[in-house]
Amino acid sequence: MQSDLPLLQASVVNADEIDSLGHMNVRFYVARTVSAKQQLLGELGLLTPGHRLRRLDTYTRFRREQFAGAKLGTYGGLLLGERIDGQPGISGYFEVRNTATGEVAASFIVTSEIRDEEDQRVPGTRFADQLSPLQGVTVPKQGMPRSLDLTPPRPVAMAHLLERVPETTVAGMMSGIRRGTVQTQDCDSSGLLRDEVDLMHVVFRLSATADEADTPAMGPPVMQDELGRRYSWAMMETRSVSFNQAHLGDDVISIGADIAVGENWRHSRRWMYVERTGLLLGISDSLGLCIDLDARRSIPVPQDIRASLAATCFPDLA
Q: For the residues of 192-238, what is the DSSP string, one character each?
């Protein structure tokens, strides 16, 4: 990995950041990266009072799981030139590392736009032109996607997906249909979804009931296969692309399906809309690996759910 990335922020994994799989949940990696990028843009004079960031595209590659008490550092910088897929925006490359071991826990390619807080207009400035070569970084080979790619995902009409995708879900991932409402705690003072809050957090909101007090309130369910092994799905790569901004009070519908399935993995995609209007808010992809939670290694997808996965896999929606 790129050794000369500057350290932007230091943190410790808190117990309440641990999910059902026993490691730090995806959302807290993203929160650290968003915070570091905001800080960096402020230090460079690109994010000034009266402006806000809006994440457009977030690619994440997970490498080493992190546990409660781990000391982390968030490193990174802005990319020179245009964003990596050639579209407008300002991109950065970031790594969350375990500072005790030096290992990279996760790496990110994040593209954002800077908007005026009052009228939400995007300034016409080409921010990349304001960077000197000494301020910019490049994405190392190891930081590029392994299985997912950075081409624009294909929008699909909500009505079409509702005809194809069943309401029921397949165990462990995010297929099927789910709903959630954008709440006050999700939004900034303008009533817009905060930059560190992914739409998936709206439809998979953290919750805990009295009889689940000792159970982590986030993460995929833990299941048991025919051999008695505890297993679940761990995300190895994710990508979230924003098409439109979510607002306070929006009722969001997530329609998810697998678009490819392998011996021990699945590529899932979720399309998220404002349910009342059908406005496409975003598309999220994840590459999930089936893992034995006690051995901490991958295993073939258990036979009892393989048929269900095949029945709800729609490669033509990719």
A: BB-TT--HHHHHT-----GGGTTS-SSSPPPEE-TTS-EEEEEEEEE
